Amino acid sequence: MERKKFKRGTINGGIARIVISFVAMAIAIIVLTSAIKTWDAEEAGGKIFMCIIAGIMLIAGVAFVVDGVKMIIDGQKSLEVSKKGHSEDGRILDLFATEVTENNNGCVSHYTIYNLKFEYTDDSGKLCESEEQVSEKVYSSLQGRSLCPILVYGERAIFDRKRFEGKDVENKN
Question: What is the edge-to-edge ordering of all strands in the sheet holding 127-134?
């Protein structure tokens, strides 16, 4: 049986992605129009290269806008789940850490992204799976566990941080 898969998106992340992609698309349009305005038969190779790069940037920009809209929709649904959802326990499918290394203008940054993937039964009885980022503290606390607290509403579910922190305090006492 194929289960539905969801990712938790954020509204702010989607808006940021859309704004950044519009800036990139504006730059691509400027490059494209300047290449076309200054077209010269002797420098056709360079102008064609500029047009190809601008076209790739435009296509990537459109893809990022679509992804940003999807993130906003997922974020709105996650917000609705956090307000209207009921408590359940989800089965942890995967708990993993991803090491990331970035190089920005010679400055190297290292950080880790922690992810939780869990399965649950939605309100109509179908098996679903969801994935979201968690903090290092939550990641460490969930290791060795098979269940995690979640909020379910409709076909969506999110990790229930409030209930988890309450249980975690009880377990330490």
Answer: 4-7, 127-134, 107-121, 86-104, 147-153, 156-159
